[in-house]
Design goal:
- This protein is of the alpha/beta class.
- It contains ten helices and ten strands.
- The strands form two sheets. The protein has a five-stranded mixed β-sheet, sandwiched between helices.
- Strand 2 and strand 3 form a beta hairpin.
- The longest helix is centred in the C-terminal third of the chain and has 27 residues.
- It is globular, with a radius of gyration of 20 Å.
Length: 335
């Protein structure tokens, strides 16, 4: 089965073709970072309009790269939620319209399920069950994954997501949008030991996260030490965030008795986080799995793959569709 995947939940338009027999055939991604940079964040209306401009050319490009034509498509998967309502509607409308025109089924996919399953697109693939650390601009969660649709949330952020904290800290330091990648780049040249920053909830009994206090600590540091090198502050912040993420992930593994950790989401591409998780896992005899770097951010490949798993096991909707800007992962049905 050849599945076309459409991702349009926020500020990236992603399109991909996944073959259930041959794997990922092709994928393409357009990011709107440059367009939103002057506003310091995503403008929903502009995001929706850009998805409209990009989705058809990207689909044509992916088909061409895969050596396929529209008639080869057997099914279409699209991000149904969560995300920006207008942006989701672009992808959902295009997917459903194309599905009707081709006479093929279409299915809505939970955005986070796409991220959770994205490491299965890499080799070696993790086997179920595993602990997943989902860490991105909008989400920071630890969950137990027993199979497709079988998710148990073990802990989540009580305020800012880790990626959001990276971006907001970047703003505090006067870095261009998005601040997260800039923080990581500058941290490579900084001295993390120069300043002591808190590790919120690192030693709490639960598996929840909190990053707003860390962000406030950076603000206070900048005000108290205006002479501080940006590289050193960035390094201190990143070290604190990585300590919390890795510490909670290892605690989840110990408590559950699991031996496999899957890391997904945009922050999962952070080099220091990967190095720390790999080092901690080695001491515990744990295996860590990551999606390919180009599939860490939002992308169509993860949606095509997740949709393929569901299409092989469940009947798609009858053509009537909606989007779900707010959608609890716990509401996703098991296969």
């Amino acid at each position: 089965m050849l599945v076309l995947g459409i991702e349009s939940s926020c500020d990236e338009t992603g399109v991909a073709l996944y073959d259930t027999a041959r794997g990922l055939r092709a994928h393409a991604l357009h990011t709107q970072v440059a367009m939103h940079a002057e506003y310091g964040g995503v403008v929903p209306e502009l995001a929706s309009r850009d998805h409209i401009r990009r989705v058809v050319p990207l689909t044509q490009r992916v088909l061409s790269d895969a050596g396929a034509v529209r008639a080869d498509i057997d099914a279409i998967a699209y991000t149904q939620g969560p995300g920006l309502a207008g942006a989701l509607l672009v992808g959902a409308s295009f997917a459903q319209g194309l599905a009707v025109a081709l006479g093929v089924p279409a299915i809505g996919v939970h955005h986070l399920e796409g991220h959770l399953l994205s490491p299965l697109l890499a080799e070696p693939r993790p086997e179920f069950p595993f602990i997943a650390l989902l860490v991105s601009g909008g989400h920071t969660q630890l969950m137990q994954v027993d199979g497709v649709g079988r998710y148990t949330i073990l802990g989540e952020t009580l305020d800012d997501a880790a990626g959001e904290a990276f971006d907001k800290t970047g703003q505090l330091l006067g870095l261009p949008y998005p601040g997260g990648p800039e923080i990581s780049r500058l941290a490579e040249r900084g001295d993390a030991s120069k300043y002591a920053l808190p590790r919120p909830m690192l030693h709490s009994a639960d598996l929840d996260f909190s990053f707003s206090g860390l962000k406030t600590a950076v603000l206070n540091l900048v005000h108290k030490h205006p002479e501080a090198r940006t590289e050193d502050v960035a390094a201190a912040f990143q070290a604190a965030a990585v300590d919390v993420l890795a510490g909670k992930a290892m605690k989840a593994l110990k408590q559950s008795g699991m031996r496999r950790l899957v890391v997904a989401g945009g922050v999962g591409a952070n080099r220091q986080l990967r190095q720390r998780l790999d080092a901690d896992a080695l001491l515990l005899g744990i295996r860590v799995y990551y999606p390919p770097l180009d599939l860490c951010t939002d992308n169509g490949a993860m949606i095509a793959f997740a949709g393929a798993q569901r299409l092989m096991a469940t009947a798609p909707a009858d053509g009537i569709f909606t989007v779900r800007p707010r959608w609890d992962l716990a509401q996703v049905t098991a296969l």
